[in-house]
Amino acid sequence: MSCADPIAVSGATCRLVVPVAPGEEGYLATTVASLLGEGEITLLPLGLERATVVAALGALAKVPQVAIAPTAVGAANPWAALLATAALQGTEGEGLLMVRPGIEAPAGLVARFALAASRSPRLALLSPLNDGGALFALFSSAPTAPLSVVDAWLQRHAPRQEHVVPALFPGASYLSAAALARLRPQSADLLALPTAEAAHLLVTRLAPFGLNAALVDHVYVVDRFPGRAAELATVGTLADSRLIAEVHPLTGLRHAARDAQGSGRLLRVEPSPAPKPVQLHIAHSWGGGLNRWVQSYCEADTERENLVLRSIGTWGAFGKRIALYQGAQMDRPLRYWDLSYPIRATATSHPEYAALLREVIADYGVEAIIISSLIGHALDALASELPTLFLAHDFYPFCPAVVTEYDGICTQCALPRLTACTQHNPQNRFFSNVLPEEWLTLRQGFERQLRDERIRFVAPSPSVIDHWRSLLPALASRPMGVIGHGTDFSPPRLSPPTTAEPLRVVLLGDLVPQKGLALMEPLLERLDPRIELYLVGAGEEGERFARRPRVTVISRYRHAELFDHLAAIQPHVGLLLSVWPETFSYTLSELWLLGLPVVATRVGSFADRIEEGHTGLLCAPNAQAVAECLAGLLAAPEQLRSMWETVARFRHRSLQEMVADYHRLLPLSPLSAPRYYALAERAQPGAEAERGERALYVNPQAPFSAVVLEFEQLLRQKLLATPRLAPWQKRLSLLPLSMAMRIARGLARIRRRS
Q: What pTM value is reported for the model?
């Protein structure tokens, strides 16, 4: 990992330089080998011929990331050479990390220095821990444990802080772009100074500018070069070094390290797993395809931690409560907030919501946001300054009906049409307490937010983007990506029917208005009598058709039983009647995975995904066109047979492929400041005792009655679930529990008299 990677929060980059002076050649190869993987390495010979350096490197001289700069001469210390060498001037905003031969560096050295430098613009010079000198030491004597073990212990226990010191460590140091800009004009004054004196003078030269040198307590290096001892001894005699030694900032960490070394625990430490990037999903709690996508994404994403912030409410107030969940586990929230002023649909701004969002981002180290729905949320979700994806599962918040269908598919929605839609569109039924004028204001705020290049717009199929650009022309020039949904659904394939008649047609899923409910009655009137229709999972609306001839209704089914139901039916074709432009359609995916070709309305993702005549047939979204298309299959059994053969070869993209596409669209660094420094909360020097988990946590700010109610529910669940008690013991135990809780709730209702 290099400083050029996106871990430098400030946006700065840095150059990794290894100066090599006479007498240091024998230690060069070991140091360069330990730095491979940190980015491009520039070697700076100090009074040495290039051939000498190449010979010292051996096979490493051929590694592409290793470059040799022109020889620098006349410098008594490496910092002066770095500052004076024209080839290392770099670009504006570029820092420099010097590592001298003999240094053995831990993995991620460059990234950790970059993270430390990003914490404050005042941190201009940074040094690692090293046991060659008292000022920089972690242990009382050099540890016998390998560097990897010391580094693992440090990553567990260092508070991850930077402490001001009066000098630089001569073996390795980081100079920020600000430090280089101030010091380069003074490089001539440093040329003749010994290394130890320069280590102190660099610090004093920057002090008048408010720039500090600091010791980084979470980076430790080993120094194998014996000649560094004299330099470190000189640094230790500085008056300022003696001052800091009286109350050294590493005292607590040193005690813990030396205790671990003396007791042998240091050798038993195991590296902590690297913390994963944290993403926050924003969604509603309505269920359906959106909920399925969020859950399946979280389950499939093994590279990042995924949190889900869901709005919970009721008609007229869809954002009464905002709850935070850990990934796909939606049974119990990590936290929740009850809004004093509920969000009816989507708030243009909401200070209470903005505050809780900031709390989540700060407390959980959130680095990116994926918005699946703004229902019950505020536009503040788009204003976090974090990389953000807006995923168009539907057409909200532009469309209050969500489905962009009102007397046909909408292509525009000015105020007159919006007003009529609010009053007369049966599908516009969710937000009756929000005025048309409020929707226009919300749209304007949404459009303004989407102009931010930090926000990426992505959809599951191309037609979604076309519809959005038609409805919101301001998005016409906005780059938008397409990432199709993945699935882990892998049922057995159905066997092709052995007879051509009757033609058995399966309509899968809820029969609701947007899925074609209005087409059913006229379709049944026009349907060829040689066609049998099976409504599988049609819900309550489908039950009204149960007594119609040649119609079979299975109101509900468990997903695991879907194959069995269809195997019993032996269908010829699936049917999709959506009248709105679906953005993907999991139902279409499931029918294909079961082996069924389809007849579908030519709208939205159906037109995107169905290959006409090969994986299905498309028709206009009206009853006559659907009836004619189905009748055509009766007359062309060979076409149906050909489609079965094509669909049998269908392969759906996996959830892992989908997640990988989202990671590419929303890249996050392997190491970041929020994630790295969040670990400091767990670093307790000297605290090695195991921490037992509490079985129950009670928020001291919660109302007493709420605590009693939740305690009763938890205790009842635990009592019924325990295998140690017989059923009669459980029933008997519930009696005193219920009585005690009733008494407690009654007492809670009695107000204390003033």
A: 0.76
